[in-house]
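Recall that a protein's primary structure is simply its ordered list of amino acids. Everything else, from secondary elements to tertiary packing, is in principle encoded there. The following example makes that idea concrete.
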Amino acid sequence: MLFKLLWLYLAVVSVISVVLTVYDKAAAKAGRWRVPEATLMTVGLFGGAAAEFIMMKLIRHKTKHKKFMIGLPLEIVLHIAVVALIFYLF
C-alpha cells in the first residue's frame, strides 16, 4: 500500500512539474507572467525533477541555465536515494 501511494504521489508531482514547465515555455514566448524559477526548482525537489528535466530537454526550455541543468539531476539523485531508502526500510 505504501509503495502504491509513493508511486501515485510521484506521478502527480511529475504531471504538475511538466504542466508548469510547458506553461512557462508558452508564457515566455507570449510575454506573459512566468512561473518563478524557485517554484520550478521546488516542485522538482518535491518529486518532479525527473519529469521536469526531461520536459525541459524536449522543449528546449531553460537548458542554458546551470541552476536547472545541474540542480535537477542532483535532485534526481536525491530522489533515487530516498526511494531506495524507503524500499530498504520497508
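The mean pLDDT is 94. The two ends are 11 Å apart (CA to CA).
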